[in-house]
Design brief:
The structure holds 2 protein chains of 2 kinds. Chain A contains 8 helices and 4 strands, in the order H-E-E-E-E-H-H-H-H-H-H-H. Chain A is mainly α. A two-stranded antiparallel ribbon of chain A has the order 1-4. In chain A, strands 2-3 form a two-stranded antiparallel ribbon. In chain A, a hairpin with a 2-residue loop joins strand 2 and strand 3. In chain A, helix 2 crosses helix 4 and helix 5 runs parallel beside helix 8. The radius of gyration of chain B is 24 Å and the shape is rod-shaped. The chains are: A mainly alpha, B mainly alpha. At the A-B interface, helix 3, helix 6, helix 7 and helix 8 of A face helix 2, helix 3 and helix 4 of B.
């Protein structure tokens, strides 16, 4: 009972299928299970709804096309035409995070985006990928990203460290934003749910509160996936166009 | 020039209308707002994204300074320097997000960058031919 009422218990990792390879714990955990579910659902949604694609789309095909066009337009607006080839990557990233957040909203489920190591891995992937794209496209000229043009030399001494730091902070802000939003929201839901039984008749108040919190969390779930995708687009824009 | 220009033909007018529409659409797109129903969501996302920016920047800056201090035994000098660098980096990031200049490094507004890019494009194409 004690663990059930602990608001952080929902984030605990449980090994579903223990796998140990050469001293490395590679167990199939509840986190991995929900990631698999997110991948299967996302792939299933896109593949099944466009299975028999028609010129005049049906309901499901229309939903899949709208989601795709949403990301494609985001890239067009924020990266430009050169960004078209990165649409599959951003679309995959968006669907994975969106489904991870939304699956976490199902009661008794696990939210893998509430673990900083998961969000940091995603953010590091974006950061390393974008940096490599920039270096491959521009070579050493990519470093001009850190030195704004038309700035006096003396100011450069101060500006370059700030620019470098603000560049390397990106994966941290990207991952902490998603992780903190998901974890704080889910912790809050459980804390308010814990008040329901302890307040007796007045438990109706935290129930009402939780109803609104669930709606808010649904908004946050979609919004954070959107923020992650749009920031990826902005970083891509920087790497492709430099200034 | 006493002779008056003939009134523009319908094709010319149509082309001008299309051009204006394209320009307007491009400007709306550059704001990152897109069409109307996406505007409030984009604004909300923009606002929510700013909060962690400052906090994380200060934290990461201080953390890097602390790591340097541990490595070189120069405590607390580098920590202090990197703390202020982190504050600066965070403020730069927030300022960029708020002024709608994206996360781009550099201090020119979006339309200036776009104009420059178009200039460069025409330069390149004229240079190749």
């Amino acid at each position: 009972m004690a663990t059930e009422s602990n608001p952080l218990h929902q984030f605990s990792i449980e090994r579903l299928i223990p796998i140990h390879i050469g001293g490395v714990d590679a167990s199939f955990t509840n986190s991995a299970a929900f990631m698999t579910a997110a991948v299967v659902l996302a792939s299933g949604f896109v593949l099944l709804s466009t299975w028999r694609a028609q010129l005049v789309p049906g309901r499901w095909q229309s939903m899949a096309e709208l989601t795709y066009e949403f990301i494609a337009r985001m890239i067009d607006q924020n990266v430009g035409r050169e960004g078209r080839r990165y649409v599959p990557f951003v679309f995959t990233l968006f669907m994975f995070i969106l489904l991870g957040n939304l699956l976490g909203m199902i009661p008794y489920s696990f939210t893998f985006t509430s673990h900083i190591i998961v969000t940091f891995a995603l953010a590091a992937l974006v950061f390393v990928g974008v940096t490599l794209i920039g270096i491959f496209r521009h070579g050493l000229h990519f470093l001009s990203l850190f030195a704004p043009r038309g700035v006096p030399i003396i100011l450069l001494l101060l500006l370059v460290p700030i620019e470098v730091l603000s560049y390397f902070i990106r994966p941290f802000t990207l991952s902490i934003r998603l992780f903190a939003n998901m974890m704080a929201g889910h912790t809050m839901l459980v804390i308010f749910a814990g008040f329901v039984t302890s307040l007796g008749v007045f438990g109706i108040l935290p129930i009402a509160m939780n109803t609104f919190l669930v709606l808010l969390e649904l908004l946050v779930a979609v919004l954070q996936a959107y923020v992650f995708a749009i920031l990826t687009c902005l970083y891509l824009h920087d790497a492709i166009h430099l200034h | 020039m006493a002779e008056r220009k003939p009134p523009p033909s319908l094709e010319e007018l149509g082309a001008r209308v299309r051009e204006a529409q394209n320009r307007q659409a491009a400007e709306a797109g550059a704001d990152g707002a897109g069409d109307d129903n996406g505007a409030s969501g984009a604004a909300l996302a923009n606002g929510l994204r700013i909060g962690p920016e400052l906090v994380v920047a200060v934290g990461v800056g201080t953390g890097i300074g602390w790591a340097f201090d541990r490595a070189f035994g120069s405590a607390p000098l580098v920590t202090i320097v990197f703390f202020f660098l982190g504050v600066g980096a965070g403020m730069v990031n927030v300022w960029r997000a708020v002024t709608g200049r994206g996360m781009a490094i550099g201090y020119r507004p979006r339309d200036a960058r776009r104009r420059e890019r178009e200039d460069k494009k025409t330069d390149e194409s004229s240079g190749e031919e």
